[in-house]
Amino acid sequence: MTGPTTTAEAPPAPPRRRLLPTDVLVVACLAIVAVRFLAPGAFTAPALQAWSTVFVAVCLQALPFLVLGVLLSAAITAFVPADFFERAMPRRAGLAVPVAGLSGAVLPGCECAAVPVAGSLVRRGVAPAAALAFLLSAPAINPVVLVATAVAFPDEPWMAPARFAASLAVALVMGWLWARFGRGEWLRLPARAGAPAGTPRSAVFREAAQHDLVHAGGYLVVGGLTAATLNVAVPREWLDSVAGSAVLSVLVLAVLAVLLAVCSEADAFVAASLTSFSLTSRLVFLVVGPVVDVKLVALQSGTFGRRFALRFAPATFAVAVLAALAVAWVVW
């Protein structure tokens, strides 16, 4: 008697990739950029033309550094041993924070580059406090930003050192605050499918870069849309009217730094153009912008989760304003 015949089952079809909201946002961004350059007549209304100009400028200005951060993050995932950073960083978070904060000086990019790298560091076992110190320091104390600040303020030689000191203080204080009060459940990194054993490192690099670029790119578009809308909505005459008040000028430029979302490589030239404001208020603008703006908050929300961003961003804003005021009081 022969056993029952069996038929070989066909292998399951690979799951279809779902269209994510970030995919739609990236496509929308590309469409707006294409229309802005190929058919500028479509944006004939002055307000719409200004809006599209700011949106395209924010996205194009930040995109190279976002790509840099994504490539660095993918390289960490694919080529750096999992225990490397655990061995390289001090085990105590209190000591790891200043090491990570100072290491931010070696990444010549803006906040868009630092976010995916910080997320990759957390995935690789680095203490979140240290990764967050790196995230805040990298866009604010790297040589490109400091040189740009010195060039933008040729008659104020203390502006670049003041920016360095205040920005590093923000990174260290926020890192230590997270080490003391932060909770692991507030961090929710997006799921990234692990590569099967034996997968070539080049394939791991490609998949990680593709995932992070689309994911972070969508949130960059959200930040760009917000910045462009608010940039057009805030009248310049209103800014000039509050520049004479010491308190209001600080608060207005701090909030404006959050809303405008200017890349840290270019924000010094924006601050230098605000000649009606005091040096102190402009230093606040330069310190707040790289550590908490609408673009960065959107990227942080996409990388670490909304619960994290809703807690981390307001605390960072307060610490940045206080650090800038303290340094300005010493320098000027």
UniProtKB/TrEMBL annotation:
Record field: transmembrane: 24-43, 55-81, 93-117, 129-153, 160-179, 216-234, 241-262, 308-331
Pfam families with a match to the protein in the record: ArsP_1
Main subcellular location of this protein, as a coarse class: membrane
Membrane topology recorded in Swiss-Prot or TrEMBL: Multi-pass membrane protein
Superkingdom of origin organism: Bacteria
Localization per record: Cell membrane
Keywords tagged on the record: Cell membrane, Membrane, Transmembrane, Transmembrane helix
Cellular component GO terms, alphabetical: plasma membrane
Sequence similarity: Belongs to the UPF0718 family.
Identification of the protein by name: Permease
Species per Swiss-Prot/TrEMBL record: Geodermatophilus nigrescens
